[in-house]
What does this fold into?
Amino acid sequence: MTWLTNRIMRRHTAPPAGPFGPSAHTAPSSDVHLSVEITKPIATAPLVQAPPSGTPTLAYRLALLAAWRLWRRHIGAFVPVAIVVVAPLVVIGELLNTLVDGHEVRMAVAVTLFGIAAAALAEALSAGISEELLRAGSAHPGKRPTVRQAAGRVPLWRLTVLAIVVGVAVGVGFAIGVLPGLALFAWLAIGCTSAMVERHGVVDSLRASVRLVRGRFWSVAALTTTAALVAGVAEGIGVGLHAIHPPLWAMIIVEAAVETVAVSLSAAIILVVFWALLRRADPSPPTHHPPT
It folds into this structure.
C-alpha cells in the first residue's frame, strides 16, 4: 500500500520548476527518487574569436595585426636584415637617378621599374633571411644569432637568385600594368621563405609559392598588396626628397632609413602569409613552427 500511495502522489504532484518554467525542462526520475532536474542548454551562435597568439591566419585585419606584433616583438631581427639588403639597393638606385637626371623619359621609366623590382627583391629576401633568424632565436631563447651568422646558415646565393627572379617578374608585370605587377607579387612573394623552411631549390620554391597561393589568391593579394603599398609609400617619400634636391649623401641616408622600416614591415607581412598558407595546406603539426 505504501508503494501504491507514493505512486499516486508522484503522478498528481507538479514537478519542481526548472530555470525556464515547470516541466518543460524537468523529467521524472525512477521509482527510487522523486525527480531529477534536467536543464537543457540555450542554443546560441558560436562566438567569433581571434585565433590564439601565434596561430597563422589570412583574415586581413588579424593578419596585419599579427604582422605588426611580430615586427614589433622582433624589430631587432627585422631591421638589421633590412638594412643589409636595402642599403646597397638604395645606393645603386640613387646612382642611376643621378645618371638619368635630365635625360629621356625611357631611362626614367627604366629606373622607376628598377626601383619597383628592387623593392620586391628586398622584401622577398628580407623575409627569407628574417625567417631563419627568428626560428634560430625561438629554438635558443636568449641566443639569437647575428645577421652575419644567419646569412652564413642560409643558402644565400639561392635566396638571392630567387629574390632577383621575383623582382624581375614583378618589374616586368608593372611594365605591363599595375594589376599584373601586383598579381605576380602575390603569386611569388613567399618563394624565398619557402626555400628557407621547405629547403627547396629555386624552381621548386617558385612552384611551391604558386601552389600554396592557388585557391587563396585574393586573400593573399590583399596582404601582399598592402606590403607593396608600404614600400610604395617609402618610394614616394624618396620622390618628394628629389624635388628639393638635397645632397646625394642625405638622400641615401634618408631613403635607406625609410625603406628599411618599410621593407622590414613588408617582410613581417610576407612571413605571416607564408605560415598561414603552409598551415592551411598541411594542418598536421609542422616540422618547423612559425616564429612568434
